[in-house]
């Protein structure tokens, strides 16, 4: 069977491509082949001739034309570029002044806040006794802009599938509110939209598990941190607390019905009218925030005096000296030991701590290039070569590297743009360990 015309054309095109690469190089070969085919299409078909011979002859001519054009372009560029050219003195002065003003403006910009977050949700004593699942759910989201969203949802005890509703609403609302942080800062997010997103999340779960919408009833307590402001969204009970230099201050109090045991849920018909949104500025005295369900509020909040326990600020302070994973572990232990004996409800709590932009300098002299010194039992401590200050945390429970060292490496990587080999040489920490810490940070931000 003779070869088809398409196969012949493909074979000729490949041969033309190889010839063009030899004549003008791989970067311009495709252009020359295309120009050759365009020129071939304009031929007078009434004159008989060998198409293959014409194509190769035309390609050589176009390649020669391309090389001459490239030489002319190179000569023009070389003649236009004068080595002895100097910009006018006034132009150089203007450029220097502009760069100076730009540098001053960049230096005057406020440092972005860095927030450490720890969250926990545990079953209450009554649910443990009846072997029921935890009906509280927590969710935390962060983005590349430094914005943070924290959400607590408490499922209704009378709703048979409320744990699934709380989980779905917390996850969807954390993503939704973080994505619409700008609208929240401008008070342009209607409560109807918030309730619609919550009900949509419940509907998705309802299609799989069945039941009515009220079977997934839950409260909503959320905040969004962005641009030195905190925006709050609240439906039902629960509590949002502002932490400063003094005692904690209530930013959003619980809303109950006719009694303490009744409240409002996102599935109520009038949920939009009970959706409370507010915007609060954060000043230099702000050290942290806390979001909690009514179970934790029973322990940490006195409704009669409207006072917040000092333990909230104490627990948030753990984030200044330990990693988020360690604080979450300690937080779960604290809730188990000290909360569950004082309330029968599920307990959920999210702690947020504001960290300074440069916290890992020497606290005595301010020097940044701290040194890691080896210690017995595989541990280590940090030493300042200028004043001799050393740091060793005895509460590390056998961890090889102190948390201060991890944060110092994160600071050098983020602010000083040090590479992994540079960080390893300076801190004596293996590159795989540093890479694991930085990868964990990236995953938390992208979560």
Walk me through the topology:
Layout lengths: L4 H20 L1 H16 L9 H30 L8 H20 L5 E9 L2 H5 L6 E7 L5 E7 L7 H18 L1 H5 L5 H19 L10 E7 L2 E7 L3 E5 L5 E4 L23 E6 L6 E5 L1 H7 E2 L4 E2 L1 H8 L6 H16 L7 E9 L15 E4 L5 E4 L6 E2 L11 H13 L4 H8 L3 H16 L1
Antiparallel strand pairs: 1-12, 2-3, 3-4, 4-5, 5-8, 6-7, 6-9, 9-12, 10-11, 13-14, 14-15
List keywords for this structure.
447 residues, alpha+beta, Phosphatase 2c, domain 1, 3 domains, five-stranded antiparallel beta sheet, 14 helices, 18% strand, elongated
Would you kindly provide a written description of the structure presented here, covering whatever features stand out?
With 447 residues, this protein is α+β, with helices and mostly antiparallel strands. The chain has three domains: 5-79; 114-355, 4-Layer Sandwich (Phosphatase 2c, domain 1), CATH 3.60.40; 371-446, no CATH class. The protein contains 14 helices and 15 strands. The chain has helices spanning 5-24, 26-41, 51-80, 89-108, 125-129, 162-179, 181-185, 191-209, 294-300, 310-317, 324-339, 403-415, 420-427, 431-446; strands at 114-122, 136-142, 148-154, 220-226, 229-235, 239-243, 249-252, 276-281, 288-292, 301-302, 307-308, 347-355, 371-374, 380-383, 390-391. A five-stranded antiparallel sheet has the order 1-12-9-6-7. It is elongated and about 100 Å long. The model is unreliable at 375-379 and 392-398 (pLDDT under 50).
């Amino acid at each position: 069977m003779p070869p088809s015309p398409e196969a012949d054309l493909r074979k000729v095109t490949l041969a033309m491509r190889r010839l063009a690469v030899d004549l003008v190089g791989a970067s311009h070969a495709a252009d020359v082949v295309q120009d050759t085919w365009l020129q071939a299409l304009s031929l007078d078909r009434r004159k008989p001739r060998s198409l293959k011979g014409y194509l190769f002859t035309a390609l050589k001519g176009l390649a020669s034309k391309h090389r001459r054009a490239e030489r002319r372009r190179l000569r023009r560029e070389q003649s236009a570029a004068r080595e002895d050219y100097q910009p006018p003195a006034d132009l150089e002065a203007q450029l220097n002044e502009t760069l100076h003003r730009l540098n001053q403006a960049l230096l005057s910009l406020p440092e972005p806040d860095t927030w450490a977050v720890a969250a926990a949700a545990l079953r209450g004593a009554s649910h443990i006794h009846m072997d029921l699942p935890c009906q509280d759910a927590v969710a935390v989201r962060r983005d590349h802009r430094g914005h943070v969203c924290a959400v607590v949802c408490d499922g209704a005890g009378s709703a048979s599938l409320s744990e699934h509703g709380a989980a779905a609403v917390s996850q969807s609302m954390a993503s939704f509110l973080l994505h619409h942080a700008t609208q929240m800062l401008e008070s342009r997010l209607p409560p109807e939209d918030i309730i619609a997103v919550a009900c949509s999340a419940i509907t998705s779960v309802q299609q799989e598990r069945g039941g009515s919408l009220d079977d997934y009833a839950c409260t909503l307590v959320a905040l969004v941190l962005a641009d030195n402001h905190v925006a709050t969204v609240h439906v039902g009970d629960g509590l949002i607390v502002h932490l400063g230099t003094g005692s904690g201050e209530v930013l959003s109090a619980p809303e109950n019905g006719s009694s303490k045991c009744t409240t409002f849920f996102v599935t109520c018909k009038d949920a939009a009218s009970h959706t409370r949104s507010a915007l609060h500025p954060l000043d230099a005295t702000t050290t942290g925030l806390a979001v909690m369900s009514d179970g934790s509020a029973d322990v940490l909040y006195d409704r009669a005096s409207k006072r917040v326990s000092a333990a909230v600020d104490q627990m948030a302070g753990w984030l200044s000296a330990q990693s988020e994973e360690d604080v979450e572990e300690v937080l779960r232990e604290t809730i188990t030991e000290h909360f569950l004996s004082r309330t029968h409800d599920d307990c959920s709590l999210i702690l947020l701590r504001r960290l300074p932009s440069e916290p890992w300098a020497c606290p005595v002299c301010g020097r940044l290039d701290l040194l890691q010194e080896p210690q017995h039992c595989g541990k280590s401590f940090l030493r300042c070569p200028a004043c001799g200050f050393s740091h060793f945390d005895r509460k590390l429970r056998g961890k090889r590297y102190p948390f201060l060292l991890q944060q110092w490496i994160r600071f050098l990587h983020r602010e000083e743009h040090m590479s992994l080999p540079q960080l390893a040489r300076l801190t004596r920490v293996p590159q795989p360990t540093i890479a694991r810490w930085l990868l964990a940070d990236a995953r938390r931000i992208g979560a």
